[in-house]
Write a structure and sequence with these properties.
The complex is a heterodimer.
Chain A: E1 4-15, E2 22-33, E3 37-41, H1 48-55, E4 63-68, E5 71-72, H2 78-88, E6 89-92, H3 104-114, H4 121-130, H5 146-158, E7 164-168, H6 176-193, E8 196-201, H7 204-207, E9 212-217, E10 220-226
Helix pairs in contact in A: 3-5, 5-6
Chain B: H1 3-16, H2 18-57, E1 60-67, E2 72-76, E3 79-83, H3 98-107, E4 112-116, E5 118-128, E6 131-140, H4 142-148, E7 152-155, H5 160-165, E8 169-173, H6 174-180, H7 185-188, E9 192-197, E10 200-210, E11 229-234, H8 235-242, E12 250-255, H9 261-276, E13 283-289, H10 290-333, H11 335-343, H12 348-385, H13 393-419, H14 423-428
Parallel strand pairs in B: 6-11, 8-10
Antiparallel strand pairs in B: 1-12, 1-13, 2-3, 4-12, 5-6, 5-9, 7-10, 9-10
Helix pairs in contact in B: 1-12, 2-10, 2-12, 2-13, 10-12, 10-13, 12-13
The chains are: A alpha/beta, B alpha+beta.
C-alpha cells in the first residue's frame, strides 16, 4: 500500500457576504498517495484554485480538515505552517511569480534562504540540468521566455525536495508547444524522483498525462478516475 | 532569511528605483548634513580656540579695565528715562600702576608667579636697504616673553639689561629674515633695521631670530612676502616710544602651579576693585581666565548647536515620513512578490525584517551621504574661517545611530503592513 501524503475531509470554503454567499468548495474528501501525479480539472469558477489553496494551507477552510504527512494544518501556528510550506510543499503559479531582482539561480535558491539553510549545490546542479536551465542560471527573469520562466519556477518549487508539488495552471500562459515541453519536464521529474504532483488545469489533454484526474463541479468533487479511463 | 541577503535585496530594490530612492533620502541627507556640519564646525572651532588659548597659557588670568555698567536716570515731565553707560576715555588715574601690581604680588605671593606685560606699538614696515617686511611691534617683559614660548633660531632673547635700560633691540621672525636677509639668520644678527611707524622711522638692532608659526586662527590668505609677523622689543623701549607713563590697561597674571585660574579671577577682581576702583566712577577691574573664556565660548556654541539640532530634527522627521511613504508605495508595488514569498514559506517576521532592512539601508545611505556632505560643508566653512577642520566623531556616531533609528521607526509600520498581507490576496493583487 502506498503512503498517503495529503488528505482532507469535508473540506469547505464560502466566499462573500451573508446575503451574497458563494460556496467555492463543498465537502471535498481526498487522499493523495505518494509519488502519484494528480490533475484537478473543471470549468472556470468550479473551485479548482480555491481547493489547491486550501490543501496548501494558504487559505483557512470554513469547514473540514487537511493533513499533510499526518500533520493537521489547522493546528499549526503561522510560523509552523510557513516552515511546513518551505520544507514540504512546492508551488508553481500560472504567472511564474519569479522575483525580478534575482537571477535564475537566486530565484531557485530562494527557498533555501527563506529556510536559513545552506544551499545544496549538487542538487541545484541536477535541477538546472534536468530543466535545461544551466545556460540561463545567471540571467534575470525579464531576459527569459515564458517557458524558461516557468521551468525556473518549477526548479524553485522542488529545490527543497518537497513532499508534494502544487501547480496552479502552470501552462496557462504558455503556447501549446511550450506547454507540452513543460509537461514533459514535470513528468520526467515525477518519474525520476517519485514526486507527488497536484496540478490544476482546465485542459483535458494535459490532465490525461496524470495518474488520476479529479473532476470538480461547482466546488464539489464529482469523480476521481484513472487518466486512461477518460 | 539571512540579514546579508536582506541587505543585498534592499540594494537591488533601491538600485531599481534610483531617482525615487535619492529623492526619498534628501530629507535624511539634509538633516544629517546639518547636524554633522554644525557639530564638526563646533568641534573645530572649540579645538582651535582651546589650542590657541592653551598655547597662550591655560593657567593665566587676564586682567583688564572695563567701563562700569552704570545707568543714568533722568526724570522730567513725570517720566523717567534710563541711559546706559557713556563711553569714557581712559585717564591717567584709571590705569593699573606698577605700585598696584607690586601690592597685588605681595598680597598673593603664593598664587602669583609673575606678570606678563605688554605695550603694543602697532603695525609698521621694516626696511633694510631696498628690502622690506611688515611687522607688528610689541614691547614685552620677561614673563610675557617666556609665556610666548618662542623657539629661538639664532642670537639671544631679550635680557634683563635690555629691559632695564630700554635698549633699542628686537627679536624678529625667520620669515622677516627670509624676506630681508635671504633667510640667513646669522647675517641678520646685529644688523639694524629702520621701521616706519606712523610716518616716523625708528632704528632697532636685531639680537635674535625666532621661528615663525602660522596662527591656527585668522585668515592666512596673504603671501609670505606680505605676511605681517610679530617683532618683540623690551617693554620699557616700547613704553618710551609710545610716551606712555600712565600704566597698563591690561595685564596677565601667571599663576603658580596648583592655583585654580578661574577661582583666582574672582579673588583678583574683588581685591583690586575694593582697594583701587571703588571710588572710580568710570572703570573697574575685570579678570578672566582662559578656562572661563573657553567655557563661555563653548556655551555659546552649544546654544547655536541646539538651534541647528532642532532644525535638523524637523528635517529628519520630514525625511523619516518620506521614507515611510516610499516604503508604503514600494510595498503596494511589490504586493505580489510578498504573496510569492509567503507562498514559498516566508514567515511574517522575515517579511517584516526584509522591509525594515530596506528602510534602514535607505536611511543609512542617506545618513552616509549626509555625513560626507556635512563634513564637506564644515571643511569649506572652517577653511574660510582659518580653522583646522576636526570631524566630529560623536556627530558621526550619533548620525549613524539616528539613521538606523529612523529606518526602524519609520520602516516598521509599512513592514508590518507587508507582513500581515494575506498570501492569496497578495498573489491576486493586480
Amino acid at each position: 500500500m502506498t503512503d498517503i501524503v495529503l488528505s482532507c475531509k469535508d473540506l469547505g470554503k464560502i466566499y462573500g457576504t451573508k446575503q451574497n454567499q458563494v460556496q467555492a468548495v463543498t465537502g471535498v474528501n481526498l487522499k493523495l498517495q505518494k509519488g502519484k501525479f494528480y490533475c484537478i480539472i473543471g470549468k472556470s469558477g468550479s473551485g479548482k484554485t480555491t481547493l489547491l489553496h486550501l490543501l496548501a494551507g494558504m487559505e483557512k477552510p470554513d469547514s473540514g480538515t487537511v493533513w499533510l504527512n499526518g500533520v493537521e494544518l489547522s493546528q499549526l501556528t503561522e510560523v509552523s505552517l510557513a516552515r511546513l510550506r518551505r520544507r514540504h510543499m512546492g508551488f508553481v503559479f500560472q504567472d511564474y511569480q519569479l522575483l525580478p531582482e534575482l537571477t535564475v539561480e537566486e530565484n531557485i535558491c530562494l527557498p533555501f534562504l527563506l529556510d536559513k539553510k545552506e544551499i545544496d549545490f549538487d542538487w541545484l546542479k541536477i535541477l538546472l540540468e534536468a530543466l535545461s536551465l544551466t545556460e540561463l542560471q545567471n540571467r534575470y527573469p525579464t531576459e527569459l521566455s515564458g517557458g524558461e520562466q516557468q521551468r525556473t519556477a518549477v526548479a524553485r518549487a522542488i529545490s527543497q525536495r518537497p513532499s508534494i508539488l502544487f501547480a496552479d495552471e502552470p501552462t496557462g500562459n504558455l503556447d501549446k508547444k511550450t506547454s507540452e515541453e513543460l509537461l514533459d519536464f514535470l513528468l520526467k521529474l515525477h518519474r525520476k524522483y517519485d514526486l507527488t504532483i497536484l496540478l490544476v488545469t482546465h485542459d483535458l489533454d494535459i490532465a490525461r498525462c496524470g495518474d488520476e484526474i479529479l473532476l470538480l463541479e461547482d466546488g464539489c468533487l464529482k469523480t476521481v478516475m484513472k487518466a486512461d479511463e477518460k | 532569511m539571512l540579514i546579508l541577503e536582506n541587505i543585498l535585496l534592499a540594494f537591488h530594490s533601491l538600485r531599481a528605483n534610483k531617482m525615487r530612492s535619492l529623492l526619498t533620502m534628501l530629507g535624511i541627507i539634509i538633516g544629517i548634513a546639518s547636524v554633522i556640519a554644525i557639530m564638526t564646525l563646533g568641534d573645530s572651532l572649540s579645538k582651535s580656540v582651546t589650542d590657541s588659548m592653551s598655547s597662550m597659557g591655560a593657567n593665566n588670568v587676564t586682567v583688564g579695565l572695563q567701563q562700569k555698567s552704570t545707568t543714568t536716570e533722568v526724570t522730567g515731565s513725570g517720566m523717567t528715562f534710563s541711559f546706559g553707560p557713556r563711553m569714557t576715555k581712559m585717564q591717567e588715574k584709571d590705569y593699573v600702576t606698577e605700585e598696584m601690581l607690586s601690592d597685588l604680588k605681595t598680597r598673593y605671593a603664593h598664587s602669583i608667579e609673575g606678570y606678563s606685560l605688554s605695550e603694543n606699538i602697532g603695525s609698521g614696515t621694516a626696511q633694510h636697504g631696498a628690502k622690506y617686511a611688515y611687522v607688528n611691534a610689541e614691547g614685552v617683559n620677561d614673563a610675557n616673553l617666556k609665556n610666548l614660548d618662542l623657539t629661538l633660531l639664532a642670537g639671544r632673547f631679550l635680557t634683563e639689561r635690555d629691559q632695564k635700560e630700554g635698549r633699542k633691540v628686537v627679536l624678529v621672525s625667520d620669515l622677516l629674515v627670509k624676506n630681508m636677509f635671504d633667510g640667513n639668520s646669522m647675517e641678520a644678527l646685529e644688523q639694524t633695521v629702520d621701521i616706519l611707524f606712523k610716518n616716523r622711522y625708528y632704528t632697532y638692532t636685531i639680537v635674535g631670530v625666532y621661528q615663525y608659526e602660522e596662527s591656527s586662527m585668522g585668515f592666512s590668505s596673504t603671501s609670505e612676502e606680505d605676511t605681517e609677523t610679530m617683532m618683540y622689543l623690551p617693554l620699557k623701549t616700547a613704553k618710551d616710544q609710545n610716551h606712555n607713563t600712565m600704566g597698563y590697561s591690561q595685564f596677565t597674571i601667571l599663576t603658580a602651579s596648583g592655583v585654580s585660574a578661574s577661582e583666582f579671577c574672582d579673588t583678583v577682581e574683588t581685591y583690586m576693585n575694593q582697594k583701587y576702583y571703588s571710588d572710580n566712577n568710570s572703570f573697574e577691574i575685570s579678570a578672566m581666565s582662559m578656562e572661563s573664556i573657553v567655557k563661555s565660548m563653548t556655551e555659546m556654541l552649544s546654544t547655536v548647536a541646539l538651534v541647528i539640532a532642532a532644525i535638523a530634527g524637523i528635517s529628519l522627521l520630514v525625511g523619516g515620513i518620506g521614507v515611510m511613504n516610499i516604503m508604503l508605495v514600494s510595498i503596494t508595488e511589490r504586493t505580489r512578490e510578498i504573496g510569492t514569498r509567503k507562498a514559498l514559506g516566508a514567515t511574517n517576521g522575515s517579511i517584516r525584517l526584509q522591509f525594515i532592512m530596506e528602510a534602514i539601508v535607505l536611511c543609512l545611505i542617506g545618513g552616509a551621504l549626509g555625513i560626507l556632505l556635512g563634513i564637506g560643508i564644515a571643511a569649506v566653512a572652517t577653511k574660510m574661517m582659518g580653522y583646522a577642520v576636526s570631524p566630529s566623531v560623536n556627530g558621526i556616531l550619533i548620525s549613524v545611530s539616528f539613521s538606523v533609528f529612523i529606518g526602524v521607526f519609520f520602516g516598521y509600520y509599512p513592514a508590518n503592513k507587508a507582513a500581515k498581507l494575506h498570501p492569496i490576496e497578495a498573489l491576486r493583487y493586480e
